Amino acid sequence: MDASRDGTIVVGVNASDSAREAAEWAADLASTQGAPLHLVHVVPGSYRDAPIAALPAWLAELRATARRLGVRDCVAEVRPGEPVGVLTGCADGAAMLVLGSYGDGAWSGMLAGSVALALLERVRCPVAVVRGAAPRVPPPRGGPVVVGVDGSPAGRAALDVAAGLAEAMGARLVAVRVWSDVVASGDGSAHRRTEDWPVLEAEARDLLEAELARVTATHPGIEVQRDVDEDSPLRALLDRADTARTIVVGHRRSPASAPGAAGMLMGSTSRGLVEFAECPVVVVGPAMAAVPPADLLSGT
């Protein structure tokens, strides 16, 4: 165990419905794992200022709801500063950082765009963006945990997180590996390698089995579904979003992928999921690739 990680789930909150749904989603997970929950409301000010002692009524209510949901250790606080800096600091050593996806003000960090993407580039824990199918529609409480698999270090970290979530939620794990016979030529054009179709599909299946061998050994109780698709990563994952409880995807700064295989970790894929998926999306950023698998989701 990495002693610097305490298993806390941190939630950036404001008075919006989306933030309340994110806090309740995080509280369910914290209760299941026996993990501490840290609710953080960021207000304009200097990071040098002390936290504000008085809690707004809505924040005290969120804390009370978390305790009713079974969270034994829940801290709520108001911190001055700017959202990315404050939440990055709070997430240091955390198991997960959770954000809502629909908000009343972009500055507060509750929108699912640039703030979430900026945070996943900085923090060493997964970033969950929690949403339902529309504003004021709660996130789904059933369905599988879906994960994109491509064999890269960030992809392995995403798979470890997804397996941990599936086990904690008592959900099926759906592992998705995509492939394509479209390859780029030296002049920038694309062509199809139709003759290689059986080989490419077999390679995709072999990679998926090799990656799953590790997580099924460490999480022997979870049910695993293996999906191999000829598709783009974003379409393959979005197609499963309407029935998923959560989607987990890796994100890396470099979009490079192996020839003949569509990479599951391109920035456009994680960004598209955060913006359009009708379920919570957990993004595992590049800083997570070096974190030991046992420490990715909890302090155990």
Automatic annotation (TrEMBL):
It comes from the Bacteria. InterPro entries: UspA. It holds the Pfam family Usp. Residues 8-131, 144-284 form the UspA domain. Belongs to the universal stress protein A family. PANTHER family: STRESS RESPONSE PROTEIN NHAX (PTHR46268), UNIVERSAL STRESS PROTEIN UP12 (PTHR46268:SF6). This is Universal stress protein. It comes from Pseudonocardia oceani.
